[in-house]
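Model it.
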Amino acid sequence: MVNHQQIKNQFESLTTLQAIQKQAYQMLVQGLAKTEFSMREWGILVYLEQHGQATASELADAFMVTRTLISRNTWRLIQDNLIQSQVNPNDRRIVRLTLTVNGQERVQKVFRQVQANLKTFDQSHNLEKLTKQVETLSQQLAKIN
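Modeled.
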C-alpha cells in the first residue's frame, strides 16, 4: 500500500516535471518568436518530418486535440505549400499528409532559425534552471523507487 510519504514524493516529482515542461515550452516559444508558425503548426511539421506521413486523426491523437482543430492548422500549411494531402486510392476516406519539398526545406531552415534565436536570447540562466529542475526530478524519482 502507498503511504503518505510516497504520495508526497510522487506529487513533488509531478510538480517538478510540470516546471520542466513549462520552462522547455517557454524556451521553444522564444525560439519560434521570429517564425510565422504557431506552436501547433510547428509541431505538425516536425511530426511529419519525423514520421514521414500521418492522417489528421493521427495528428489529433498525437497533439491531444480535435480533428477539426488539426484540420484548421493543416489547411493553412497546405495553402502555404508546406504539406500536401494524398488520398488513398483503395479507400478514399483515408487522406495522408506529408511534407512537400518546400515544407522539408522550411523545416530545416526553421530548425536553424530556432537555434539561432535561442542563442540570441540569454539562455544560460534558463538552461541552468532547467538543469537544476532535472536534477531535482531525478532525486525525487530515486526516492520513489
